[in-house]
Write a structure and sequence with these properties.
This protein has 391 residues and is of the alpha/beta class. It contains 11 helices and 15 strands. The two termini are 39 Å apart.
Length: 391
């Protein structure tokens, strides 16, 4: 299947037979990351103008979110494509296999997800020809991770692919086992022993990331696709866990930026309680990457084997994502906090980047569009050049 038109100004970089996805959605994650992204032209964009994020000067405000890039082959590819930063896909202190393939399907939804439709079943297809019409997907990898020593050594090699004006981030998470009682940390008065257990795991992974070359660390506290223990996806709601982890991290690495990925907050007040308690140790917040929704094939069967729910992302989550970025921006001003905002969720066009930045985001992150249009950062650079000339 040939790619759809992705901008006339970058057509010289695009092979006429380029498939829709640069990721083979029919293969297991472990197999896909051993091959280069499917980029037939092997042409890469020139370097654009400079932006600022986390105290660094970047060539682009567009960041590859912790999802599409895993391992040196993929991070190198996105650095060559001109993204300002690339965040290595979420790693763990203990190995975990990915969920069964396929891990990606195209969601057939014609309107954005609203709060009153959360929990309603959505339908999806494996037909990639449907993607240009809907521009939304569901994904469910489950935060797979190799051995800690393996990803630590590879991160050192990934660092070599970073060019001036770019940053390498690393996302990490805590592994909550089926025999753990860590779910009680989400109560009103969580026992400190449970907070310490999870925080220690996060700190171990974060410390390894930094000492292996990551320029900044993202705590993934909101993955909607963990099957072993769904409490992993709700850690972003626990203010005590976040506060303690950030404090301890900054004691060890005071000059390394750290942030966390958040999920769906029920309202602005809930978000404010968490962000305010995090205080000045919080360098940035990151969200929203996906919404956990029931997704099935059109015949009612599982579209992704063994998973009734999976993370929906792309165009259908943009309204809720923008709502959360606006809240985060307002809270930052109201509470006098210093954190920066890495906005995302449904960014598919250059104008979407502008919307997030205008609401207060300091940079934006992309995932779905990075798998279907890796030239996106370059196209945004051309967009800003055009806007400057027009004004």
């Amino acid at each position: 299947m040939k790619a759809n038109n992705r901008g006339k100004s970058s057509n010289n970089l695009l092979h006429p037979n380029q498939p829709t996805f640069i990721y083979d959605i029919n293969k297991p994650w472990e197999e896909v990351i051993k091959s280069e992204p499917i980029w037939l032209s092997q042409k890469f964009p020139p370097r654009p103008k400079l932006y600022c994020f986390l105290g660094h000067t970047l060539i682009s405000p567009v960041v590859i979110a912790a999802g599409p890039a895993s391992g040196k082959i993929w991070t190198d590819f996105y650095f060559k494509m001109g993204y300002g930063a690339v965040i290595q896909k979420t790693m763990r202190t203990a190995p975990r296999s990915s969920n069964l393939a396929p891990n990606i399907a195209i969601v057939k939804a014609s309107k954005p997800i609203a709060r009153n439709s959360l929990g309603q079943t959505m339908h999806a297809t494996m037909n990639q020809d449907e993607y240009p019409k809907f521009q939304s997907i569901t994904n469910s990898f489950g935060n797979p991770s190799p051995l800690l020593s393996t990803w630590a050594n590879e991160l050192k090699e990934q660092k070599k692919g970073v060019n001036p004006g770019q940053l390498l981030g690393c996302s990490v998470t805590a592994s909550i086992g089926e025999n753990s009682s860590c779910s009680v940390i989400f109560g009103e008065n969580p026992p400190i022993s449970q907070v310490l257990e999870v925080a220690t795991d996060l700190l171990t992974a974060a410390s390894v990331a930094v000492t292996s070359g990551a320029d900044f660390v993202e705590l993934n506290l909101a993955c909607p696709n963990v099957m072993e223990n769904t409490e992993e996806s709700e850690m972003f709601q626990n203010a005590k866990l976040i506060q303690y982890t950030l404090e301890e991290f900054k004691k060890r690495f005071p000059n390394i930026p750290i942030g966390f990925k958040f999920g769906l907050y029920k309202d602005k007040d809930q978000m404010k309680r968490v962000f305010a308690q995090a205080g000045d140790n919080l360098d940035y917040v990151s969200g929203i990457n996906a919404l956990a929704m029931p997704v099935e094939a059109e015949d009612g069967k599982d579209i992704l084997p063994g998973r009734k729910k999976s993370g929906v992302c792309g165009r259908v989550i943009k309204d809720i994502a923008l709502e959360h970025i606006e809240w985060a921006s307002q809270i930052r001003e109201e509470e006098g906090l210093k954190y920066e905002i890495l906005g995302g969720g449904g960014i598919l066009e250059s104008e979407d980047v502008d919307k997030f930045l205008n609401l207060g985001a300091n940079a934006v992150q992309v995932a779905t569009v990075a798998l279907t249009n890796p030239l996106f950062a370059h196209q945004y650079s051309l967009h800003t050049q055009y806007q400057s000339h027009a004004n």
